[in-house]
Write a structure and sequence with these properties.
Layout lengths: L1 E3 L14 E2 L5 E2 L5 E2 L2 E5 L21 H9 L4 E5 L2 H4 L8 H16 L3 E5 L42 H4 L11 H11 L5 H16 L5 E5 L13 H5 L3 H19 L6 E4 L24 E7 L8 H22 L2 E7 L6 H16 L3 E4 L28 H7 L3 E6 L2 E8 L4 E7 L3 E5 L5 E7 L3
Parallel strand pairs: 5-6, 5-12, 6-7, 7-8, 8-9, 9-10, 10-11, 11-12, 15-17
Antiparallel strand pairs: 1-17, 2-3, 4-13, 13-16, 14-15
């Protein structure tokens, strides 16, 4: 065994499409294993897309932002492509909106930044204090019943956001109207799921030849059903995944595969599946095991607790999520975590979960790059992002996220690709290593071990 204190081999940075290899690592067209670190870029409210000119601490994703990410070693974004933005009228796709999404994808490619296209939703629609699905898909009856909150509505029928903030957004999932609308989606009432599939088919058709698009995430944090009609379905571990989500995911999978049989499809369990029940099988069958990724989120879910307690929760949740990935025999990606402030306790939470991600050799996207006027978050739009109002970095947060990592590794498999936050030591161990590309920062000890190569 040869041990090198420093191993940084400078090789050409070729743009390359991403697939999964037989061990379910992400790999490029040269067969190198790839690791991704980056951010969510999710603008939930109209116009459902960030500003693409100049820099704004709250609203932009522009050339300047791409430069900031690239300069600091980040190589992926999870970009919201909105169903309500893309199909504002039933069955009619807005090509101008979709072209704007494609423009951001191409802009990111100039800086070798990869993209996961994510159809984001929280609480289904703005009429329910949320986002995600178009107004034409909504038949509001009694929101926020059975809650007794006093909520005012504007002329468009949308709740005043100030009133929505009376409680944490996730608690609205127990309301009658939101439950009914997820039932409508899962049962394909009025063809809603088919319209959703047509939306995804067009998104895939427009992006199938973009080398930096890793894949398509079908639906963010889906509800486990209608709390008011089926409490067992809502809370029983894994039941909603099999009963509701698998049929929906298979339908959307089929729409996407009509036009793109190569890019990866990402899918999540229902947002209450914290016990890690997961799924019994992947959505496309054996043929697509190497083209699917289990997207998972890790939040301790309790505010104002110590970082020690939060990290114990995260430790259990991460273990359960990785059990899902291993059972499914597909890829895994930590697509959300964080939504924290810029203080020492928040940094401890980030350090812990990112050390854990390294230990599982997992890629990640932090929630989120900027506030983007986010009205459905467990944090605040001013706290969760990377910047203060004056445009300066939230430094403790950046120091946790801007961590060294080997992002391109020519190896048969990875034994260790671990950065230790406490000791600031990076350890990389591979079997049959030939080349490694490393994001490095100051004051770092690097140990790379090469085994069984010659």
């Amino acid at each position: 065994m040869q041990i090198y204190q420093v191993l940084i081999l400078i090789v050409s940075a070729l743009a390359s499409p991403i697939t999964l290899n037989e061990r379910r690592y992400f790999q490029d067209q040269n067969g190198a294993i790839r690791i991704f670190h980056g951010f969510n870029v999710v603008y939930k409210q109209a116009p459902y897309i960030p500003k693409t000119e100049g820099f704004d601490y709250m609203e932009s994703f522009s050339e300047e932002d791409c430069q900031i990410l690239s300069k600091n070693g980040f190589n992926v974004i999870r970009l919201h492509v909105s169903f309500e933005g893309a199909m504002p009228k039933r069955g009619e796709l807005d090509e101008e909106y979709l072209d704007k999404i494609l423009m951001i994808v191409k802009m990111a490619a100039k800086y070798k930044i990869y993209v996961i296209l994510d159809a984001h939703q929280d609480l289904f629609n703005r009429q329910f204090c949320g986002n995600g699905f178009p107004d034409w898909a909504v038949d509001k009856k009694d929101f926020p019943f059975p809650k007794t909150l006093q909520i005012r509505f504007n002329e468009q029928g949308y709740p005043i956001l100030e009133d929505c903030y009376q409680q944490k957004f996730a608690l609205y999932y127990s309301t009658n109207d939101i439950g009914r609308h997820f039932e409508m989606l899962y049962s394909n009432q009025n063809g809603l799921a088919d319209y959703y599939g047509q939306f995804w088919q067009r998104v895939a058709e427009k992006h199938k030849d973009e080398w930096n698009v890793i894949g398509y995430e079908i639906l963010n944090e889906p509800s486990p059903g209608n709390f008011q009609k089926g409490i067992i379905d809502f809370f029983w571990p894994g039941l909603a995944n099999q009963k509701y989500l698998v049929p929906l995911y298979k339908l959307i999978h089929n729409y996407i595969r009509k036009v793109d049989n190569e890019k990866l499809i990402f899918f999540e369990s229902d947002f209450l599946d914290v016990l890690g029940a997961g799924f019994d099988s992947n959505i496309g069958g054996q043929e697509y095991l190497d083209k699917e990724v289990f997207s998972y989120h890790v939040y301790c879910g309790i505010e104002k607790i110590s970082s020690v307690f939060c990290n114990r929760i995260n430790q259990l949740m991460y273990y359960l999520k990785m059990r899902n990935v291993n059972d499914l025999k597909i890829g895994g990606f930590l697509t959300e975590f964080g939504a924290v402030g810029d203080d020492e306790q928040s940094k401890e939470i980030l350090d812990y979960i990112l050390d854990k991600a390294d230990s599982y050799q997992q890629s990640w996207t932090y929630w989120q790059y900027k506030g983007y006027n986010d009205h459905t978050t467990m944090s605040t739009m001013y706290e969760e992002g990377l910047f203060y109002e004056d445009g300066s970095f939230q430094k403790q947060k950046l120091s946790a996220l801007r961590r060294p990592y080997a992002y391109q590794i020519c190896a048969d498999s990875i034994e260790t690709n671990q950065y230790y936050s406490e000791t600031r030591e990076q350890v990389v161990k591979q079997k049959c290593l030939f080349q490694m590309r490393l994001i490095n920062h100051k004051s770092l000890i690097i140990n790379a071990q090469i085994a069984n190569c010659f």
